[in-house]
């Protein structure tokens, strides 16, 4: 946990990493937090890419069961094609936009402003930008689309936020740390506060991917493939359950 652990828990922040289709892990984490530790998202919440969407869903009280169902529908659609999510008939940006418009409350931008921090990468210079003020629901959704845009997966032309082109926040800061205590969440085994504990996760060999620590484990190599090309919906559901269970383990220790 980043920050002084002696601080009041009510001042805690939480940050969700970018992780592609592994974002369903974050849904499990968010479900456990809502049920057992709502104090963790009473202050500030941050995220990159899929983590930004999870953070927004948590802070705006999005229906997480509906979010899970929507993710599994996207997975089923992608698996119908040999190229998976890269198939030209699949427009992930449009699917994301439609889902967010449907599932987010109309005043989501008001709940998010000042509390939700979305990591984006500015296309012109590759610099990281954290945005936390949103004038409309559409602007909030546009920020999440920018944070989630990966070339080829999302198309060829990066989306814009307030007239500036951005792409996936994971390219510059995949796990933004906020001031004060920040509980970090990642579906990759590593040094994040909430993450899988692989059997070989005690290995000292690891690397940092734009602020997110990842250990060299066999399961992590598999997770990289899942992040890019989703497996069967049943496996995705088990990843969601693991996020829930890993969160309970973290809460039991703190």
TrEMBL record:
One of its GO terms (cellular component) is membrane. Residues 14-181 form the PNPLA domain. One of its GO terms (molecular function) is triacylglycerol lipase activity. Keywords: Hydrolase, Lipid degradation, Lipid metabolism. A motif (GXSXG) lies at residues 47-51. It comes from the Eukaryota. The keyword Transmembrane helix does not apply. Its EC number is 3.1.1.3. InterPro entries: Acyl_Trfase/lysoPLipase (IPR016035), PLPL (IPR033562), PNPLA_dom (IPR002641). A motif (DGA/G) lies at residues 168-170. This is triacylglycerol lipase. It comes from Romanomermis culicivorax.
């Amino acid at each position: 946990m980043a920050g002084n652990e002696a601080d009041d828990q009510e001042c805690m922040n939480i940050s969700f990493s970018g992780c592609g289709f592994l974002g369903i892990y974050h849904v499990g984490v968010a479900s456990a937090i809502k049920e057992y530790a709502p104090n963790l998202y009473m202050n500030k919440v941050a995220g990159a890419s899929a983590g930004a969407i999870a953070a927004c869903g948590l802070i705006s009280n999005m229906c997480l069961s509906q979010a899970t169902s929507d993710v599994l529908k996207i997975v089923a659609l992608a698996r119908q094609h040999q190229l998976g999510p890269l198939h030209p008939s699949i427009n992930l940006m449009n699917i994301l936009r439609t889902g967010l418009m449907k599932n987010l409350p109309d005043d989501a931008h008001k709940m998010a402003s000042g509390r939700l921090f979305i990591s984006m990468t500015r296309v012109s210079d590759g610099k990281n930008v954290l945005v936390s003020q949103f004038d409309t629901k559409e602007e909030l959704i546009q920020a999440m689309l920018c944070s989630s845009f990966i070339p080829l997966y999302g198309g060829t032309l990066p989306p814009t936020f307030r007239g500036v082109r951005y792409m996936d926040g994971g390219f510059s800061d995949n796990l933004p740390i906020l001031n004060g205590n920040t509980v970090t969440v990642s579906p990759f085994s590593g040094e994040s506060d909430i993450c899988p504990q692989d059997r070989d996760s005690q290995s000292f060999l690891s690397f940092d991917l734009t602020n997110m620590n990842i250990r060299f484990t066999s399961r992590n190599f598999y997770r990289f493939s899942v992040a890019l090309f989703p497996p069967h919906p049943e496996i995705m559901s088990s990843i969601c359950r693991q996020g829930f269970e890993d969160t309970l383990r973290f809460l039991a220790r703190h």
